Amino acid sequence: MAAKNILMLVGDFVEDYEAMVPFQILTMVGHKVDTVCPDKKAGDTVKTAVHDFVGDQTYVELPGHNFAINADFDSVNPEDYDALVIPGGRAPEYLRLNPKVLEITKHFGDANKPIAAICHGPQILAAAGILNGKNMISYPACAPECKTAGANFGEVSPGADNAVTDGNLVTAPAWPAHPEWMKQFLQVLGSKIEA
């Protein structure tokens, strides 16, 4: 397996597990993952949030860890990367307002490079205009904007632990889907994992 250069877009209040776990999995199997955030440089951190269900009508947002930024957003050239990862949480709702975030995301979609997005991450894909005709899923609250962007929105399993692959795009609804989401993404990347 050839190691891939992977870009991960994060921001303050990215979902803790959805940044930490994919970063650890992808680096564990030998890929290089650059974590970037607008207005931050290598050595900075973003605050994360833990989203969980405790009996309310929606998830709660609890303080998470600080997540390290290891590359400078301003110097990102998407041509240098083989794949893109977009975690969820609250960050995507404001990251999608950044023109360079959308430009970077559009590059991966237009070049048909592997993209993994989870939970609220597809908000960025919708804003970048790369969901038209794609089979995908996200956190259910994001379904209306994904559908408006032209996506064929699939069924989210009761445990939110499923993922959908459509060509270069691998999407999932929330962190319980990490095993399936990362397995499918590693397959799209061409990574070989022995059982």
Written description of the protein model:
This protein is of the alpha/beta class and 195 residues long. The mean pLDDT is 95. The protein has six helices and eleven strands. The protein has one domain (5-189): Class I glutamine amidotransferase (GATase) domain (Rossmann fold), CATH 3.40.50.880. It has helices spanning 16-28, 91-95, 99-110, 122-128, 143-148, 178-189, and strands at residues 5-9, 14-15, 32-36, 45-52, 60-68, 83-86, 115-118, 135-136, 152-153, 164-166, 169-172. The two termini are 16 Å apart. It has a six-stranded mixed beta sheet, with helices on both faces. A three-stranded mixed beta sheet has the order 2-4-5, covered by helices on one side. The radius of gyration is 15 Å and the shape is globular.
Which structural category do the helix and sheet elements fall into? alpha/beta
**Mean pLDDT rating:** 95
Order of strands in the sheet with most strands: 3-1-6-7-11-10
Just name the CATH architecture.
Answer: 3-Layer(aba) Sandwich
By CATH's scheme, which homologous superfamily applies? Class I glutamine amidotransferase (GATase) domain
Shape: globular
Instruction: Please provide the ordered H/E string of secondary-structure elements.
Output: EEHEEEEHHEHEHEEEH
* CATH fold-level name: Rossmann fold
Q: Report the β-strand fraction as a percent range.
A: 15-25%
CATH class: Alpha Beta
Instruction: Give the end-to-end Cα distance, rounded to a whole number of Å.
Output: 16 Å
> How many distinct domains?
1
> How many strands, what sense, and barrel or not for the largest sheet?
6 strands, mixed
Cα-atom Rg, whole angstroms?
Answer: 15 Å
* DSSP strand tally: 11
